[in-house]
From TrEMBL:
GO terms for molecular function: ferric iron binding; oxidoreductase activity, acting on metal ions. InterPro entries: DPS_DNA-bd, DPS_DNA-bd_CS, Ferritin-like, Ferritin-like_SF, Ferritin_DPS_dom. SUPFAM superfamilies: Ferritin-like. Residues 38-177 form the Ferritin/DPS domain. Gene3D superfamilies: 1.20.1260.10. Transmembrane segments: none annotated. Belongs to the Dps family. This is DNA starvation/stationary phase protection protein Dps.
Amino acid sequence: MSSANTRNIKDANQKAATRLYPTRNDLPEETRAKVVAVMNERLAELIDLALVIKQAHWNLKGPQFIAVHEMLDGFRSGIDAHVDEVAERLVQLGGTALGTVQQVSKNTSLETYPADIHRVEDHLKALADHYAGAGKRVRKSIDQTDELGDADSSDLLTGVSRTLDSNLWFIEAHLQESA
């Protein structure tokens, strides 16, 4: 493929990503555009988190392997459900969900997950950092979407926040020493 064709594809992708499609949703177009941008940011982070959960799940080694391995399966399922909800919400608002690996890599604000770790404890520490980062951004977005007048997106993100906080609690409980 020539670079001209690649550039045309990238230009077309960028236009589709920022263009709003018609909808009878009564939120003002400017509000919808801002919420779509916020939701695409969270979508990238949630997809990133879903992928690193599997990275850890596949590569765990050591004590507590089976318990953590199985726990992460449940975490992944929960995050996948939220990915779908966030993507569908931004499309309901007339936006385009940016969920390809390339778009996620470009748009996530989470730190790169270490690919060279294997110990259960190391994965739990890295996952705790990722969950904390995603949770912080989701809580900020709850406020942003609420201030923009989109109670539905704010409510949806509140559910995401509860899941992230719950999963973080489980991860941190594995890392804490009993008294």
